[in-house]
């Protein structure tokens, strides 16, 4: 299924939203939450790395990896390599981002994996890793037969989109969870920080929506590895 609109306009909007989302989350974590630190007496500075890396990695860079086949007028082998590398970067940043959440909890004597957000986060990073490994083995090296690649492509795309949409939804859930904790600790419900966090969540959701719209739209050039099979 594809909509009769070219992918580039959707991709441009997605990239603008992605940049906006990164700026907003940095403003939140640096301006309102005190900054980022790997080691600190104030353990909240360690946690601040988590939303930055998760948004930058799984959401923004992961989204860019998804839309490359639709928007880059390059040979399929080049697009495939870019797609693979961007997803690898997203996966590594996601793993580090999750580790910082555990690090913050452990050093603050807070229990791990008690929330739906954390459960989904672990599941998403595992599925993301499985998807990357499968794509590497079948579409890159050593590579499956042409029949295996052809039959696998639609499922690879659908499963990838499913994991990505789940990641975007879990990011929104994470914003909600953190903001709820802050408000229960005295943060003004209608203050500038609360407004900023909610707006960042909306931008994140819109970015994910435009990534999906890009996938469902008409590619810049057709080839055997485009997403037109959806």
Automatic annotation (TrEMBL):
Please give one Pfam family short name. Answer: Cytochrom_B561
Gene Ontology annotations for the cellular component aspect, listed alphabetically = membrane
Q: What class of enzyme is it?
A: translocase
Alphabetical list of InterPro entries matching this protein: CYB561/CYBRD1-like, Cyt_b561/ferric_Rdtase_TM
Does the keyword Transmembrane feature in the UniProt annotation?
Answer: yes
Please give, as recorded in its UniProt entry, the membrane topology of this protein: Multi-pass membrane protein
The protein depicted here goes by the name: ascorbate ferrireductase (transmembrane)
**Alphabetized PROSITE patterns for the sequence:** CYTOCHROME_B561
Q: Tell me which cofactor or cofactors this protein depends on.
A: heme b
**Heme listed as a keyword:** yes
Q: Which GO terms describe its molecular function?
A: metal ion binding; transmembrane ascorbate ferrireductase activity
Catalytic activity annotation: Fe(3+)(out) + L-ascorbate(in) = monodehydro-L-ascorbate radical(in) + Fe(2+)(out) + H(+)
Source organism (scientific name): Cinchona calisaya
Q: Where in the cell is it found?
A: Membrane
Q: Which SMART domains does the entry mention? A: B561 (SM00665)
Predominant cellular place of this UniProt entry's protein: membrane
Keywords, A to Z, come to: Electron transport, Heme, Iron, Membrane, Metal-binding, Transmembrane, Transmembrane helix, Transport
Task: Check the record and name the PANTHER family matching this protein.
Answer: CYTOCHROME B561-RELATED, TRANSMEMBRANE ASCORBATE FERRIREDUCTASE 1
EC number in record: 7.2.1.3
Q: What Gene3D superfamilies is this protein classified in? A: 1.20.120.1770
* Record-annotated Cytochrome b561 domain positions: 13-216
Q: Where are the transmembrane segments?
A: 7-28, 48-69, 81-99, 119-141, 153-175, 195-216
